[in-house]
Amino acid sequence: MQRIKSFLGWSFATFFGMAFLGSLLSDSPVGTLVLLLWLLICLPPINRFVQSQGLRHWIWWKVGIFAIGFFLIGSTTEPEAPPAAIVPPPVISSPVASESPPPNRPSAEPSPSPIVSPSPTPSAEPSPSPIPAPAPAPVVIPSPSSTPVSTGPIREAVSGSCDCPYDTDRAGRRCGGRSAYSRPGGNQPVCYFEDR
């Protein structure tokens, strides 16, 4: 029985010793002192010394010291506050009138050069070089932003609550100040010219 008590005493002392070393890194001095006290009362040499001095009911003293230690650790630790909910700020987006794509301009491709094959006899007459074809003139397409826009709506809305030609767009979204038709801020709806 004595060997079992000694084994359990050293096991608990080792456990509390490791916890004590870990608590040295924390910022809780009360918890560190309580763990040191628990380590000391579990060590078998200290238990033998106390029993040799004739202290009666040593086991109840140990239970009381453990209970007081639990109370001290529990009263000095602060409860963790729940994490604060991070609320993102509301995103206010204003639709931007889309720009028309730049007009297609044909790229100037170099004309292929004729393949010269080596001939055994030199020719006195030079070969005619190909004449490059003139490049077609670029087609200029007027953009809607460059044409004048009348002050009134281009076409009357179906329900009268929207300056755009239709109450909804192709995707079914509302027309008006919050639609893709409107300029930033929801003022002056922009209607497409093909809807006239």
For the terminal residues, how far apart are their CA atoms?
Answer: 103 Å
What sort of overall outline do the alpha carbons produce when their principal axes are compared?
A: elongated
Count of individual helical segments: 4
Note the beta-strand portion. Answer: under 5%
| Mean pLDDT across residues | 68
Q: Poorly predicted ranges (pLDDT <50, ≥5 residues)?
A: 155-160
Q: What is the number of beta strands?
A: 0
Q: Order of helices and strands, N to C? A: HHHH
Work out the radius of gyration: 45 Å
Assign the structural class, choosing from mainly alpha, mainly beta, alpha/beta, alpha+beta, or little secondary structure.
mainly alpha
Helix content: 25-40%
- Main pleated-sheet profile: none
Biased composition (Low complexity): 142-154
Keywords: Membrane, Transmembrane, Transmembrane helix
Region (Disordered): 95-196
Transmembrane segments: 7-24, 30-46, 58-76
Task: Tell me about this structure.
The protein has 196 residues and is mainly α. Among the domains are: 2-76, no CATH class; 148-196, no CATH class. It has four helices and no strands. The chain has helices spanning 2-23, 29-42, 44-52, 58-76. The chain is elongated, with a radius of gyration of 45 Å.
